[in-house]
Amino acid sequence: WRQLTKLVSTYVEGLKEAVLPRTKRVHTSYGMTMTSTGRLNSSNPNLQNIPVRTLEGQEIRKCFIPKPGTKLMKCDYSQIELRLMAEFANVEALKGAFREGKDIHTRTAAQIFGLDEKEVDNATRRKAKAINFGIIYGISGFGLSKQLGISSKEADAYIKTYFETYPEIKDYMESTKALCKKQGYVSTLYGRKCYIPGITSSNYGQRQFAERAAINAPLQGSNADIIKLAMNKIHRKYEGDHEVDMLLQVHDELVFEVKEEALDCVAKEVQHIMETAAELSIPLKVDV
Questions:
Q1: Residue 184 per-residue DSSP state
Q2: Apex CA 183: angle with CA 180 and CA 189, to 5°?
Q3: Quick count: other Cβ atoms within 10 Å of Cβ 139?
């Protein structure tokens, strides 16, 4: 009941009310200074959290349609925060996998569970994926156990093995927390400061939350910087061009409305701009 009520009030009614009579379209507002990591924040209405996981949510997504003669084009950075973790922590094993274009979750599963990559099945890959992404957000054994439906003891063992496999990540986390406690902030790749209040709090819960934020902020903040650099380049390239409109930014993806006849050409150009927006020691990959 709660789920359906939220869909009706927030999305069905909310989006209908948000239609601008002059354009017959929904327009969001983006805030540049609403988040500590520098992520853009969408409001009135928020178009960064349109549901996708449920069948009902997918029906709501079908309401978003392009102008006649155009198509919606979505370009998203593949595993960008994992790539940035490999960059920040200088994890050669992960960097090598990204350079070779390997499936990173399969590689991690093989290394953690002592398997050959060919032996990794979907269930094992899913575990490795949960650990890979969970580690970025400072997941606990309890959190991982809930996610994977396993015991806390088993989840703790997975995390311990992960850090033994990639000791550079553990070192990065500890040094980042120590630096943040000393100076009160962490920095993105481009030197932008993300302040972390509560990092020296005497309250254990607050301090734990702040430590997780300190680990993640350089990754999420650098992701935000990179996509903004890409957006600026894309804007300059297509300014005044009536074939391409950049409509939305959803953290690590951009959504465009493109004239059908220009689609193939624009897709290649945008992909190239996004993939070369930052100079890292590993490639950025964009799925279109």
A1: S
A2: 65
A3: 19
Q: How sure is the predictor about 140, in pLDDT bands with cuts at 50, 70 and 90? A: confident
For 75, list phi and psi in degrees, rounded to 5: -125, 120
Residues 6+ apart with CB under 8 A from 173: 138, 215
- 155-160: long-range contacts at Cβ-Cβ below 8 A with a sequence spacing of 24 or more? 158/112, 158/127, 158/131, 159/131, 159/135
pTM of the model: 0.92
Question: Is the CB of residue 255 less than 8 Å from the CB of residue 64?
Answer: no
- Closest by CA to 91, choosing from 220, 252, 219, 221, is 219
The dihedral built from the CA positions of residue 239, 245, 246 and 247, taken in this order, carries a sign that is positive
Digit-coded pLDDT (tens) for 172-230: 999 999 999 999 999 999 999 999 999 999 999 999 999 999 999 999 999 999 999 99
**Rounded alpha-carbon distances, angstroms, from residue 253 to 191, 226, 245, 247:** 23, 11, 14, 11
Q: What is the pLDDT of residue 198?
A: 93
Residue given tokens 């009614």 in the structure block: 13
By the 8 A CB rule, do 283 and 102 touch?
no
3-state secondary structure 97-151: HHHCCCCHHHHHHHHHHCCCHHHCCHHHHHHHHHHHHHHHCCCCHHHHHHHHCCC
**Residue 72 phi, psi dihedral angles, 5° rounding:** -85, 135
Contact 263, 285 (CB under 8 A): no
Amino acid present at 232: N
pLDDT tens digits, 160-170 = 999 999 999 99
* Structure letter (DSSP) for residue 102: -
Taking a C-beta distance cutoff of 8 angstroms, is the pair 60, 7 a contact? yes
